[in-house]
Amino acid sequence: xxxxxxxxxxxxxxxxxxxxxxxxxxxxxxxxxxxxxxxxxxxxxxxxxxxxxxxxxxxxxxxxxxxxxxxxxxxxxxxxxxxxxxxxxxxxxxxxxxxxxxxxxxxxxxxxxxxxxxxxxxxxxxxxxxxxxxxxxxxxxxxxxxxxxxxxxxxxxxxxxxxxxxxxxxxxxxxxxxxxxxxxxxxxxxxxxxxxxxxxxxxxxxxxxxxxxxxxxxxxxxxxxxxxxxxxxxxxxxxxxxxxxxxxxxxxxxxxxxxxxxxxxxxxxxxxxxxxxxxxxxxxxxxxxxxxxxxxxxxxxxxxxxxxxxxxxxxxxxxxxxxxxxxxxxxxxxxxxxxxxxxxxxxxxxxxxxxxxxxxxxxxxxxxxxxxxxxxxxxxxxxxxxxxxxxxxxxxxxxxxxxxxxxxxxxxxxxxxxxxxxxxxxxxxxxxxxxxxxxxxxxxxxxxxxxxxxxxxxxxxxxxxxxxxxxxxxxxxxxxxxxxxxxxxxxxxxxxxxxxxxxxxxxxxxxxxxxxxxxxxxxxxxxxxxxxxxxxxxxxxxxxxxxxxxxxxxxxxxxxxxxxxxxxxxxxxxxxxxxxxxxxxxxxxxxxxxxxxxxxxxxxxxxxxxxxxxxxxxxxxxxxxxxxxxxxxxxxxxxxxxxxxxxxxxxxxxxxxxxxxxxxxxxxxxxxxxxxxxxxxxxxxxxxxxxxxxxxxxxxxxxxxxxxxxxxxxxxxxxxxxxxxxxxxxxxxxxxxxxxxxxxxxxxxxxxxxxxxx
Length: 758
Known about the structure:
This protein is an alpha/beta fold. The protein is 21% helix and 26% strand. An eight-stranded parallel barrel has the order 10-11-16-17-18-19-20-21, surrounded by five helices.
């Protein structure tokens, strides 16, 4: 069973609330997000009452109004009525005006004390206008239970339309599955912030998540995997009816659902069911390791294209989008280089190399999509070897792929990892849950500009917009997926809707506090900054005389702390305002508190007063002794009493054998544990910090760091210790296994270690 160092679930309990919402700091001012194009505030306000009526003459607008009447009823208890005649006051008039100069998603709002008028060219514009109207009300309007308050709206005039027509979120459900109820919940929230595209990543090496009636083995062999620890994950997939249900639900919220079926790479789950469409013939198992597989669809086999055509033609009727995403990324060419059929295809089609073979492959799939009037989208690798004529490019490996494609006249959706990958850390990795890597704060996501520098000015029209991507390797439970998604997806919403010159992060930071309360109404487990240290955080601090703990957060929030073993609350804790000094053993518990009263998880920091541990050796052998044990091991104790398969003396950690190269296919023979023993030279008496992703680290025979059973994609554990000058014995154990989808040998990650003197 996995152990996760910081995996947590925040539970939200909701009941009937009685409060005066206009006293809440987060309800002060105007908090519309994304910020509208034009807004003018006037004196006065409109009060929503149980007697307020919607005035609607158009049936399409009426359907949209019904959606909001239902929402308003849940939080206010008001059963608002619709009528065609405008009363003398206390009304919300909603009109479709086809002659408006705004685009199809634009709208205007005029609020007076007497009544409100919302106008738009289309029902979608009406929908966005009413979403904005909801954001002019206190945040509690999104509550699922009745709130007792005065529901007031400031008098304003708004004229608004989006800057970009593509405002998207991608979601990977292959690594870790998310059910239909979860998807619907997210669609509700995305619609609040005027996100209009939902990119559904449905097939991968690690799982096939869409039903196939023509190829039934995909519904059995491809929808589950045996994890590295031996447990079975799955079977999980969506039926055709569930897909249609989600598409219809999204359509009601004016969100377009775009399917992705990966090819020519990332297809091992499908090949596990139908190995004949590979270059080698298999056999294969659904991949239980993250990263990239060497095994891809065979480009030289005509039957491969029959299979993929059948799949595409089965998927297309389930979706109403004009777009179909084919992936096209991370396709190693090694199998094609050795495959006689693929080499014959290269000669037959007069192609230069395997890169052009990939372009030819994608071009052949493009013809299938064009036959069904679908527009192809692919990740920026589809540029390699020549771009398919009608393709739209998603630029994820930075911005250059998007620049190149747009300058060639192709439409582009910007989604560069450095800004818009929401599986990246959003705080210090030593305190945040394990993630894929990277560091992307809310502020960094907000800073993104979709039209990149270096793009020819007349090609800016090809930038359709931007998309934030949520990849699921380390998102083990739905709450964790939400934690990584929100509130950064709201930043993406403003980046793609509002004007460039309107961007103001400090103002966004203020408004986001209001939006987080709205997320509470939907039970969203969003990120709250966890207090961390300025340089690198540690949950264990050794000291000799005294220690100073300095704290900060990635957003300006209140930090509360206790030193009496109680968890900090608003009632029992102190507010952190300056660095804390300790001269005796202590347990410091800290957490962040939002203006709404919602709090982060509690972080516990142990402070341990020590004396310098004496040196244990006077003469040492240079380097370290490395003992290798072949096979999978999940506990250090499993190595006790065993004879190593190989022993050597190495001069540095980088010389350790048995590292798995990128794109490596891993067999049982590749799993090797290593035990390293030797000595370190401590130059002076002092407190030293050790940090490692190995399974265990011992100093002078005492276990200092224990990572056994944890996910070790990134260094997560550290500890400090007071050491006297001289040589000290050190032992490091790295077990050979797969926990959490990466082999411990991957790029030597299990052996990263830093020694830092305090």
